[in-house]
Design brief:
single chain, about 200 residues, mainly beta, Porin, eight-stranded antiparallel barrel, four-stranded antiparallel beta sheet, 15 strands, OMPW, OMP/PagP_B-barrel, signal, Outer membrane protein
Length: about 200
């Protein structure tokens, strides 16, 4: 009788330790510096001529993300920043600027949550809203919203019980019609790669 009772006690202790883990330390806050590298692909302007004439500037931006761990390995991450200004180029010449706000929601799987080095993969959705379009002195603009797939790979390196270093790469599907006088003139496939380095704090 002693062995089944001992096994039951150990199983119950393990269950409560997992629940305590989820309840006491579910939150992870990260701050990152992110380099945005757009793909710079586009349809021919006006439906004729060469493709890929429209480009969007690279940029380094600050980013804050909040992760909630449902289990030691499964987490949901919300990626946030403030509206960012980019320059748009046509055949290498600036035609104006726009702002975009790109919140992203991801589901992640962490392969070694208890280890010092913990890689992860993630997938989710990115919703980008465009504003303050100032293209061709107001004669052109980008459509208002873009909704697309987001893929992610990264790793955390623990410094102690709370702090960690983070490296992260994301690929976003980000498309927008380019409108001139309200009519579609081209379609830009921005599709940026985001390379980030930052620090995290586990509560």
């Amino acid at each position: 009788m002693k062995h089944p009772i001992a096994a039951a006690i150990l199983a119950t202790a393990g269950l409560f330790s997992t629940i305590a883990y989820a309840q006491s330390t579910p939150w992870l806050l990260r701050v990152r510096a992110v380099h945005i590298d757009p793909a710079d692909k586009s349809d021919p302007v006006g439906g004729a001529g060469a493709a890929d004439r429209i480009a969007v500037s690279d940029k380094v931006i600050p980013e804050v993300d909040v992760s909630y761990f449902l289990t030691p390995s499964l987490a949901a991450e919300l990626v946030l920043t403030y509206p960012q200004r980019h320059t748009v180029y046509l055949d290498g010449k600036s035609i104006g600027t726009f702002r975009h706000l790109p919140p992203t929601l991801l589901a992640q799987y962490h392969f070694a949550p208890g280890a010092a080095f913990s890689p992860y993969l993630g997938a989710g959705v990115n919703w980008t809203t465009f504003s303050s379009n100032r293209l061709l002195n107001g004669g052109a603009s980008l459509e208002h919203d873009s909704l697309g797939l987001a893929l992610q790979a990264g790793a955390d390196y623990k410094l102690d019980g709370n702090w960690s270093l983070n490296f992260d790469v994301k690929k976003l599907r980000l498309r927008s019609d380019v409108l001139i006088g309200g009519a579609k003139a081209s379609r830009a496939r921005v599709d940026p790669v985001l390379i980030a380095l930052g620090a995290g704090y586990r509560f």
